[in-house]
Specification:
globular, DUF4435 domain-containing protein, 294 residues, 55% helix, alpha/beta, 6% strand
């Protein structure tokens, strides 16, 4: 029986007495997607939800897990893989991950699981047929106005762009944990169609504004690129493409694709429905259940 004096609010008390595994996540959209992946019939055993206070994002989710696991070892967190880059060897663990989730060797993150992907949207980007959806998202009159090859080429270009910006974000996260830069760069800042020169100019300005020298940033950036190259050199091209979709800024990439093609804003729901029928859904459920003791 939990010591009631250690319980700080009604939500924590509820989590103890409902007896199920509780997994705190960063946003309501994450909770919904993970619920779709786990599938129906498991609501009595596991629940994904956002923290009752403190807002959204990885910080409040991690803080809530740390607070509640004192009295309830059935409480966990499941957060974006990108957040691991701030931990010692966290990026390396994310890069090498071949399962739906991973953990890092940090006692402060006991009970916290990380997605193998940069963030939840990358699961859609990586596993569903985004190209097919875009090609078919037409009126009857315009049914044949989009070529699958053309759409695929644009999607790959978008993914490559946001893969580069994500590596910049991973770099800043590592430097921030080493107190070498103020804050973590927002990779979504590269949403505009800048040239390579324009991209570099904006990046340098953001790095300088965050109190870091370009030389320090570039050195760390190159370190990550070497790690990525070493791993990618062992892969066939199709797997490299899938890995870029896993590690890129998925939210910005999907938003860019939606923006370019004028796709209906509800398309994520259709992609999630497709995802629920794929083998990945079973892999996700089994992996999360294993890590949470179900």
């Amino acid at each position: 029986m939990a010591n009631l004096s250690q319980i700080s609010d009604p939500a924590e008390l509820d989590n103890i007495y409902i007896g199920k595994v509780v997994v705190y996540v960063e946003a309501e959209s994450d909770a919904n997607l993970f619920g779709v992946l786990v599938g129906p019939g498991h609501a009595e055993r596991i629940e994904f939800k956002i923290p009752p206070e403190g807002g959204t994002g990885c910080g409040p989710a991690i803080a809530r897990v740390k607070r509640e696991r004192v009295t309830n070892r059935k409480v966990f967190g499941l957060i974006d893989g990108e957040a691991a880059a701030s931990s010692h060897l966290g990026f390396e663990k994310m890069l090498e991950c071949v399962e739906p989730t991973f953990v890092v060797d940090d006692p402060e993150l006991d009970g916290v699981l990380f997605l193998a992907e940069h963030e939840a949207e990358n699961i859609l980007l990586r596993h569903t047929d985004v190209c097919h959806y875009v090609v078919k998202d037409r009126t009857l009159a315009g049914l044949h106005t989009r070529s699958a090859d053309d759409v695929r080429e644009l999607i790959n270009g978008v993914v490559d762009r946001y893969f580069s910006s994500a590596v910049c974000k991973y770099t800043s996260a590592r430097l921030h944990s080493a107190q070498a830069i103020s804050g973590i760069l927002d990779s979504g800042m590269f949403f505009n169609d800048l040239s390579r020169t324009g991209f570099l100019k904006l990046l340098k300005a953001k790095v300088a504004a965050a109190g870091c020298t370009w030389e320090v940033f570039r050195t760390e950036f190159k370190t990550l690129l070497r790690l990525i190259k070493t791993r990618f050199d062992t892969m066939e091209e199709a797997l490299k493409s899938a890995e870029r979709r896993r590690l890129s800024d998925g939210k910005s990439a999907l938003a860019k694709i939606q923006n370019v093609y004028g796709v209906n804003k509800y398309w994520e729901g259709h992609l999630a429905d497709e995802l629920a029928k794929l083998p990945y859904a079973t892999e996700f459920r089994e992996n999360v259940f294993l890590r949470t003791g179900l």
